[in-house]
């Protein structure tokens, strides 16, 4: 699949906004199944753009949770502890 730089940027932007892949395909005017295949294939520009957008949103969301936890939000503190425990469990297998 040959996507333009503009289409790749749009994939990244829409993934950052957690838009489903099917709707991203419609927005950039490509076949839905082809885009899904491309995003599932490691090493493709489409996958890179999609993951970059998702990662940006994940970072922004986690930053908000961390800030809320530091400000005393019990639910945010519990979520932050889940993040930390998850990261620690990965290190210990």
Could you explain the architecture of this structure?
The chain is mainly α. The protein has one domain (5-91). It is 78% helix and 0% strand. It is elongated, with a radius of gyration of 17 Å.
Describe the structure in brief.
With 93 residues, the chain is mainly α.
What would the keywords be for this entry?
93 residues; mainly alpha; elongated
SSE map:
Blueprint: H1 5-16, H2 21-28, H3 32-40, H4 45-70, H5 74-91
Biggest sheet record: none
What is the succession of H and E elements? HHHHH
Say what oligomer this is.
single chain
Unreliable spans are none
How many structurally independent domains?
1
Distance between the termini: 37 Å
Q: Mind telling me the C-alpha Rg?
A: 17 Å
Strand portion? under 5%
Overall number of strands: 0
Number of helices: 5
Secondary structural class: mainly alpha
- What overall geometry do the principal axes of the alpha carbons give? elongated
| Mean pLDDT over all positions | 95
Helix % is over 70%
